[in-house]
Amino acid sequence: MDAATPDRRLRLSEIHEHNRDSGSYWVYRGDRVYDITDWIPSHPGGDVILRAVGGSVEPYWNIFSIHQKQEVLDILEQYFIGKIDPRDLVDGRAPAGQIDDPFKSDPERDVGLKVLTPRPCNAETPTRDLASFITPDRTFYVRNHLWVPDLGKGEKHRLTIEMMDGSEVEYSVADLRDKFTAHTITATLQCSGNRRAHMTAGARQTNGLQWGVGGISNAEWTGVLLRDLLAAAGLPVDDPPDDVKHALFAGAEAYGASIPIEKATDRRGDVLLAYEMNGKPLSRDHGFPLRVIVPGHVAARSVKWVNKITLSGEESTSQWQRRDYKCFGPNEGKSPDWDAAVSIQEVPVQSAVTSVDEVYGLEEDAVVLQGYAFSGGGRRIVRVDVSPDNGKTWQQAQILENDAKGHKAWAWSHWRIAFAKHEVDKVFLVKAVDESYNTQPDSFEPHYNFKGNLTSGWHRVSAP
Amino acid sequence: MDAATPDRRLRLSEIHEHNRDSGSYWVYRGDRVYDITDWIPSHPGGDVILRAVGGSVEPYWNIFSIHQKQEVLDILEQYFIGKIDPRDLVDGRAPAGQIDDPFKSDPERDVGLKVLTPRPCNAETPTRDLASFITPDRTFYVRNHLWVPDLGKGEKHRLTIEMMDGSEVEYSVADLRDKFTAHTITATLQCSGNRRAHMTAGARQTNGLQWGVGGISNAEWTGVLLRDLLAAAGLPVDDPPDDVKHALFAGAEAYGASIPIEKATDRRGDVLLAYEMNGKPLSRDHGFPLRVIVPGHVAARSVKWVNKITLSGEESTSQWQRRDYKCFGPNEGKSPDWDAAVSIQEVPVQSAVTSVDEVYGLEEDAVVLQGYAFSGGGRRIVRVDVSPDNGKTWQQAQILENDAKGHKAWAWSHWRIAFAKHEVDKVFLVKAVDESYNTQPDSFEPHYNFKGNLTSGWHRVSAP
Q: Could you give the ipTM of this predicted complex?
């Protein structure tokens, strides 16, 4: 390791040589260069750090926002070795073209998706496809936290299951297909940020991507039951030991999350390691060749490109488990008590209007509304109330039948209602009720959380 | 059977002789007398009809309100045999003293209970006892639909379990204690009408008893697991056959209800046949010698004085399953589509203020609020938000720790919060959030249901 010599000037070409194929690993941030070779074994996020070596940490730190605090900067400074040679800087920084693009191997996508951010890709399902019970693969909403890993044809991909005693079992996707019974369920995935834009509009600014009603989609998933895998690995799944509390999932791109062991082992919980979506192999954006599906829970637990399952007494330590996917009280500012809030698992009852159409009839003109309703935990939607006049009166929508597969109601319900034009007065409202008779809050401000997670206040749309 | 002779006049003393100890059974309604001997085997409610014979059906029909429709009157008229002799009538009716009192053997009760109706007894837990985590037996809220059966010392009481093939197993309470493992859980029971008075005040008139905040209590229950009983009777409890869909419960006083088989057999569902409450044998008002406890579900499914469990493909046909314990939309009048609404099982998230106390301090006067919060399905309460100023600002209450027993959070949480006097402005509001991040609706009118069931709009209380 080179000693810290503040006056040393390093060319970008030299930094690039200290990449993952070299024996010593350099990174830069701004114009400051660090040799992090000795730090790598201590990195809490594991090997993913190797993606950054030989270049800038900044595109990664923009994604892994957990780095953006003083204590991380202090650690990095311990490995300072010099500055980038001014001849290689433009406006004091390495030119963008010199910074490796983590997203360069992302797949091409359907142009119909409503893109919120291209890198990482976050995109809503287009309105027309929200009306179909099964969302087509190409327009299923995309919520990527990082780049899409390129796992080739998936033949080399392995799923490792690590038990509490450290013992491991490893499977290829072909093994999973061959050695375990396949199961198919119909499950809706919903981003915790779905409808966040409504909380911002109805209350105050929220952190995070401003999703409309399209951060939700529904598909048929085929794969093997996590319960079966854990049983084969030796866990007494009907009565796990008290110290086994969580199943942790890690994805090939470095994402991580966990679910309680009760859900992982529930006979009626239907947690899958899925290799097919809508009857075909998963597409790359949706986790090829293997992803977790945790039906009834927030989609953030349905880890894509999964390569490791670990049983543990603790939740995943990832920022997506301990930070991002939590809700706080309306009284809490942007430095809440992170640990006091519980990680989002099951989601609350939700509904939204996806289309408002004027229909010109022979007898009377009408307005037809369509939308979806969904609740977590497999709780079936039993009623959807729609007001054509900003809450003065309510009518019940027709809930459309579906042929969803699974032990519980893991799939959304579509609904439809028609109003005579004369009944309609300015603003439509919609709210749903699930089989536990939970319902949605009326408004946004009293339920404000600065992250805008799990927005579920009544959807309000203007009449045409 | 006597032929119908409209001019026949019958003395009350003669009618009284046609009681359950006789071979032929007469009843009267108003001044009209009926010989219902031939009808008894067809009575949908079973043998309970024998309680009325030899006297008036009216006190029973006031309880079993399902009789109050024309088709029932038409059936009764087929058995008309004459009128009561005018010498025995006062103002055209049999005198009240002549009508048997179904409640005459009801137990004595604590004078602290807030009585809504004495016969059948319906009474709220007094405010001071709502503040204790475990509600004392004597002031646990009472919700009786009928009379309290007098089952002596309980030695003759039997629990019969009827399987799908008609086979039966029968146990005494001593058998249950001796032959099965005892389990203790802490479970809150809540009447579906709890806080109904708030819906009436906040929206419109509702049918049913106008409960305040005291239609809820919490106790430790000890008994045997329904799952264990069903397993012993031969049901494969981990994977019941598809045709077994419900477990039906019947009580000795004629009440009946049912729960889905999934709850009945869930390893973590903790459904008990309880013989102890707070460490002592059940009291008569709470089901002595045996009652069902279905934690996380509406209390109407926790059948008292249970003497029969039946496995079935259908829900209980009782009015309490098919009618009374359902919710309807705000658009539905008093003749709703009864079958379209689902029976209440798990209850939604709920909270209420139980006391508001002014505290005079050395530095500043304060107001301390206490209350409870609870959610169905074993979903833990994770946050209680209280506004001291009618919703302008919110603060989080302290949720008190408890040592509830059971696989899930079946018990209420108590909470407490103090406001400086200057923060307080007119109206306090409270709302809770459970671990599925479901919350309570803001208001009442949009969630109005004419039965006033499952009222869960924010509790609003005036500041002192």
A: 0.88
